[in-house]
Amino acid sequence: xxxxxxxxxxxxxxxxxxxxxxxxxxxxxxxxxxxxxxxxxxxxxxxxxxxxxxxxxxxxxxxxxxxxxxxxxxxxxxxxxxxxxxxxxxxxxxxxxxxxxxxxxxxxxxxxxxxxxxxxxxxxxxxxxxxxxxxxxxxxxxxxxxxxxxxxxxxxxxxxxxxxxxxxxxxxxxxxxxxxxxxxxxxxxxxxxxxxxxxxxxxxxxxxxxxxxxxxxxxxxxxxxxxxxxxxxxxxxxxxxxxxxxxxxxxxxxxxxxxxxxxxxxxxxxxxxxxxxxxxxxxxxxxxxxxxxx
Length: 294
Known about the structure:
It is a single chain. Helix 2 links the parallel strand 1 and strand 2. The chain is built from nine helices and four strands; from the N terminus they run αβαβββααααααα. The strands form two sheets. It has a two-stranded parallel ribbon with strand order 1-2. A two-stranded antiparallel sheet has the order 3-4. Helices cover 27% and strands 7% of the residues.
C-alpha cells in the first residue's frame, strides 16, 4: 500500500481521512490543491481533477493523520507480518495539544531475537505455558491426501515446494506454497485464504497447521475460542490484527489522549508486562515502550 501507484494510493487514503467532509469516495472526481499535489513529489499525471493554482480545498481538516509501517515481529509477535497502521487525531484534540502521534518503540530490534514458532508451540514464551497439542479448542487436524503427506516429508524444516524432487514438482509462484515453519524463527505471514499448498505447515509433522497453532502465531490467548468450520476459523485468524502487536499502539494512544497518563499503574499494562517478560532475551524493565511526543 505504501508503494502502490508510486506512493499515490496512500496519499489519497491519507487525504480522505483528513478531509472527511470533502470526500465522495470517487477518486475520478476528487479535487486537490495543485500545490498539495506538487508537494507529494509524484511524476505521474494525477488521475483526479485539480482546482486552479490559487484555489484551496475549501475544507479544514477533520483529522490529523499519522501513518506508520509496523513490523509486528519487533513487538513480540512470532510472525513476519508487516502492516500499515493509520492513526487519526480529531482536529480539536490535535489543535489543543499541537503534538504529533509518535509510533511506539519496538520491543525487539535484532531479528535473531524474534519470538519463534517453536517458542509458542512448545509453551516457552508469552502467555503460553502448555504445548499447543494440549489445547482442546480449535485444534482439529485437517485430512490431507497421502501424496501431500509424502511431499511434506520430503520438504525440510523452513523449506517449500522448491525443495521437492522433480517427480513431485508442483507449480507455485509464491514462496508460501507448501512452506514449512522453521521452529527457530518466526512464522511467515499467516494468511486467511488460499487453496492447496497455502495452509502453512508444521515444522516436524507432515500436516497443515491447526487453527490453534495459527492463533498462537497471531498471539491470541488459548482461552479465546473461535466459532465455525475450519476454513471460516482460518479466515477469522488470518484477517485479524495480532493482539500483542497492536497493544503498544493502544497504550500510545492512551498516553496521547489522557493527561498525565501513568502507564506504570495501568492494569492492562501490568498484564502486558507479564506477557513480554516471557520473551527470550527481553528485559521489560529496561523497555521504554512509549515514545515521547514531538
